[in-house]
Each structure stands twice: as C-alpha cells, then as structure tokens.
Write a structure and sequence with these properties.
The structure holds two protein chains of two kinds. Chain A is an alpha/beta fold. Chain A folds into two domains: about 5-80 and about 130-230, Rossmann fold (3-Layer(aba) Sandwich); about 85-130, no CATH class. Helix content of chain A is about 40%, strand content about 25%. In chain A, the strands form two sheets. Chain A has a six-stranded mixed sheet with strand order 5-6-7-3-8-9, with helices on both faces. In chain A, strands 2-1-4 form a three-stranded antiparallel sheet, covered by helices on one side. In chain A, helix 6 (about 160-175) links the parallel strand 6 (about 150-155) and strand 7. In chain A, helix 3 packs across helix 4, helix 3 (about 85-95) runs parallel beside helix 5 and helix 5 (about 130-145) runs parallel beside helix 6 (about 160-175). Chain B is of the alpha/beta class. In chain B, the strands form two sheets. In chain B, strands 1, 2, 3, 4, 5, 6, 7, 8, 9 and 12 form a ten-stranded mixed sheet that branches. In chain B, strands 10-11 form a two-stranded antiparallel sheet. Mean pLDDT of chain B is about 90; it is low at about 1-20. In chain B, helix 1 packs across helix 8 (about 175-185). Chain B folds into two domains: about 1-100 and about 215-260, Periplasmic binding protein-like II (D-Maltodextrin-Binding Protein, domain 2), CATH 3.40.190.10; about 105-215, D-Maltodextrin-Binding Protein, domain 2 (3-Layer(aba) Sandwich). Classes of the chains: A alpha/beta, B alpha/beta. Chains A and B meet through helix 2 of A and helix 10 of B.
Chain lengths: ~230, ~270
Amino acid sequence: MFPLIAENLVVEFNGKHILGPLDLTVNKGDISLILGPNGSGKTTLLKSLHGIMKLKRGSIKWSCSDNSSMKKQMFVFQTPIMLRRSVFENLTYPLLLRKVSNSKAHRLATEWVEKIGLKEIMHISATRLSGGEKQKLALARALITEPEMLFLDEPSASLDGKTTVEIENLLKSCTKNGTTIMMSTHDIGQAKRLAKNILFLNKGILESNQLTETFFLEPTSPNAQKFITGEIVE
Amino acid sequence: MMRFFKQICAPIFILIATTANADNIKLAVTTSFNNSGLSDVLLPKIKSDIGLNIKLLVVGTGQALRLGAAGDVDAILVHSKKAEEQFVTDGYGLHRREIMYNDFVIIGPKHDPAIVRNSKSVREALTLISQTPASFVSRGDDSGTHKMEVGLWKYSGLDPDKFGKWYKSVGSGMGASLNVSASMGAYILSDRASWLNFKNKSDLEILFEGDKLLFNQYSFIPINPSLHTHVKYQLVEKLENWLTSTTAKSMINGYEIDGQALFTFNAEPE
C-alpha cells in the first residue's frame, strides 16, 4: 500500500484556490501531524489524500490499486459520525462490511467496547453518547478494522484532558500494530507528544515538513516559528 | 386498472434492468423525480454515456436520507434543503450539489370551494383552505414535499397537528396521493412535474402557483465512503460529473410534458 505519493496536488472549491501545489510522500508507520492556522488547508489535505475531495490538478498514488487503497484506510472526523445503531453495532458494522464472521465481529467488538470504557452502555443508541464518548467510539470503529492508514481531523478539538489522553493512548497503541497516521491538530503539545514528523500548512501551501524535534528547534518556515511561539500568522 | 394499480402502489422500489458486466450503483430518489418521468429519460442516456446502471430506490426524501445514513445506497437525489444540510453536517453525506429545480403548485377541484384561485400568496391560499369544509390531502410520508407542505402551513400560522378530519394524511408517494385527491375532490400540494405527468387528473386543476416560497430545489449527495466503505464513490463521482454536465443541462431543460418544461438545470460548475 505504501508509500503514498502526492504530486503537484491542487484543490479548488467554487473557483477559489484552497490547497497546493503540494508534493508529499507518506511512508509506512509515519505519524504525521499537520499544524497550521485556521483555513490553512489542513482538512482539505486530509480529505484529498483520503480520496473524498476532488483534485483540480495533480495525483495521489498508492502503491496498490485505488480500489483496494480505499478499503485499507479510515477517516475520523472532527465531529464524530454515529450510525443510528447501538454502541456495539457501531463497532460490528465495519467488520461485517468486510465479511468478517459474525462470531469474530462480536468478539472484537466486545474487546473494543471494554477498551474504550463503554461496556456498561454498549446496548444504548450511539446517538445518546456524550461528545467524548462519541469520539472514542468513532476512533474505535476505525481501529477495529486494523487500517493501514488512518486520517484524523482534529479528533480531540473539543474534548476534555482525560478523554484526549485516552484518545492519544489509543493512537499510540495502534501505531505499534503498524498503522500509519496522519492527523490535523491545533494543539502544539499534542504534536510534541505524538508526532514523528510535522507538516506546517499556511494558506494552502506546505511551508515545512520536518521531524518533530527539528521542527520545534529549528523550524524552516518563519510562519511556523511564529505559530510555535503563539504569534498570529497572517 | 394496471395504471391505477401502479399509481396506488407507489412509492415502491423500481428496479432498472441491469447487466452483469456494467457498473451498478444504487441511488435513492424522491417519488417526484420518478413520477415526473425524467428518470426514464435520463437513465438510458447515463448508461450509454458512462456505462452506469442505476438502480433507483424511489422513496420520500426522509426515507432517502435514512437509507443514505444507513449506507444502503451509494448516493441520494432529494429536495429538502434544511434536512440535506443537516445530513452533510452529520457526516453521512460528502457534500450537497444543487442540480435542478422545479416548483410546487396547489391543486384542487375546478369548482374551488375555498376560492384559492385568486389568492395573492400561498399563505392566503392555505388560510382559505383551512377556513372552509374542503378537504386537503397531505403526503404524510416525511418526504420533501411533505416537509415543504408542513413548513408552508406553519409559515401561514397554522399547525397541521391540530387540524380536523378535513386534513387527510395518507402516508403515500406523490402519484398515490394525487389519486386520493382526485377521488375525493380534495386540495393537495404537488410538485409541478409530478402533476403534469399525472394521468388521472379527473376534476382537478392547478389553482395556485407562482409564489417564490414554492421553489423546489433538487440536490445530489454522495454517501460518505469513509463511514460506509462499501459505497461506490468513484462511480458516484462519475454520475455527479454527468448530472452537472452540459449534456444533462440540455436534457433536463428540454424535458417537457404538454409543451411545458418541468425542470430548470442550475448546477454550478466546479
């Protein structure tokens, strides 16, 4: 499946330039976090790589067919999407779509519902969960399929510290299984805690792509330097 | 008899013949899109142009949204802007693309007991209907037309939940509801396309039209492949490109019944 190579990527929406031109290579096992001010193109980049946003120009190549790449990647949105089913059924759903046997799907869902602390309420409708519980369930629903690539769009943007830590722990554990992660965030601390490398976007341009340590010590982009120190980036 | 049976039994699943080798997708559409006859014209052309077999699931907008949220279809073509925007906000749909519009009209018996024919606004027309013993047939099926009708009553300061027996909620598609209206001599709100294509007009005719509140926008929404990984997003994208093409524009704008254009194409280029 890897590497994923984006070449000369350009995205426009309603005639307005949103992203690019941009070149990027993602290697297996990378944990890349995307930083940048509001409107810099973070969500657009994630959606484009995932294949759910049309490109104006350029290409995204996986080292496998487009059809099979879609089945090996998952996306967790900033606002978690809940199927109008029980917590448990939200977890079995992606497995049954992948023709996993009923018994295995139930076994895995039972393990995951415990892992995310929702065992006691696994039979209630997922739409009744709190925001943090929904986000944990959305992440578990993605991870239960053991995706090769996981995209996350600010998954802990509106969560409390405890839930953020739980989500970060889930992400760390899944990278041990070889899942590659690309995630947007506004949280510089989170970037330090999780990222192997950091992409800095500003006004749709990828201004830097550096290892985390180097990014915070010697950012190559002046705007990244401002962003790190809390200055307004214009 | 057979025609009557077909109309009474709508909405039902309409299965378009498919071939083993062609690409197939499932599209939930409103009954009005199908009843207008436009689907019969567009689908063969789509198949010949891009090799796509479309299996139509003909339901109300509410049911189409539910099918989409459950991942039972690949895309939807519906007409209820507020519900569609919520559907996309909730993450079930990828985006909302406006394709075409037509309008709603108030149909009723020619002798017009509520005297709505000379109304200056839809608010006045509905108020008059509510103040006379005349019957009104409501789709009552959570469709886009039903949502529009309920919204118009509320806009007129009236609450359908408090109406008496004169307000008949039939829980049916457009064709079947028009048939009930024809048999009772009752008023009804219909999209213009379904009305023009309706074969059993009996004593009914258009009594009120033209208020800008009766505008009826149809939009296309691909189901989110990140949530429902089995949906055929690449084929859906091909269909969306076709539906917003100049070919679609000329076919939609050129579709007429009795010399009247039924729809106006208004898809914006990307």
